[in-house]
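ok trying again, last paste got cut off:
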Amino acid sequence: MTTAVVLVQLGTPDEPTPSAVKRYLRQFLSDQRVVDLPRWLWQPLLHGLILPLRSPRSAALYHHIWREDGLSPLYYYTRRQAEAVAHDLEPTVTVRYAMRYGQPALSTVLDELQDSGCDRLLIFPLFAHYSGATHASIVDNVYQTISSRRALPTLRFAAPFFEDPLYLRALVQRVEALASSVRQLRDHFFLFSFHGLPQSHIDQGDPYQQQCQITVTKLATALSLPTEQWAIAFQSRFGRQKWLQPATDQQLKSLPQQGHKQVVVICPGFVSDCLETLEELGQQGRQLFLDHGGTSFQLLPCLNDSGAWLEALTGLVRQELSGWGP
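nice, full thing came through this time. structure:
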């Protein structure tokens, strides 16, 4: 039997232009796992108001973080992660990467693997924490893609790894890389920022918030951080409905007034740097904190292609492949 692993990220525009961003946002914001408003209400708003207004603004923000080699950071690091896993796994296992929205499209990658004769598929969402807007959307897309096939592959979906020791160890090493010792950061406040979700998703049973809290609690313990030296927050609100609180931007405004003028911002939910980390936090968040009295803002780079994370990711994939081959 032929086995393949597909590492799946959320997605990215092909280029930092209004037209490319509009294509990406149209696909992303049309997913009812992401925006669960009735289609008759949402689609006219999306196409008539949101896409025309938001696409040029978002394209300008993407332009600030775009790499000189013509790739988005998210795409670059996702490819690097797939290459590292492929290098370390047995040559009998095929490793591909895909995007739920954008290119390479998950549906296209799945079709190519099945056409090549692959009959065992491990789908590995690159999200430590489960949410319906990420994991469940990927599951939906996989089943929609293979549903027309007469012969279906054996499928596995990797579990969220929010408390796996391999993942936590890679994060701790990332923090330690900021200084020769975490003790040198003892006068800093640690703000753990996660992508937000509408509160209604949590009320309906999504475990995302609970899993984020577990990750931060374990990280704080591993770093020996007292409870008064850290907090959790949620960023990237969209729309008028209630989202998870506290909001990251509000925390960055209020921390200096609380006496915390030096902050380290950590994003455990993002394994690759992207618009939300590099621009929303690294540029807008930094300026917001300094404008409100902060003196030192340090944004911890995401796990990206750090050696500790590539080793951890390969280990996580091996765990999920248990029983499938050598």
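cool. Strands lie at 3-12, 93-102, 120-125, 154-157, 189-195, 230-235, 262-266, 296-299. The first helix runs from residue 18 to 29.
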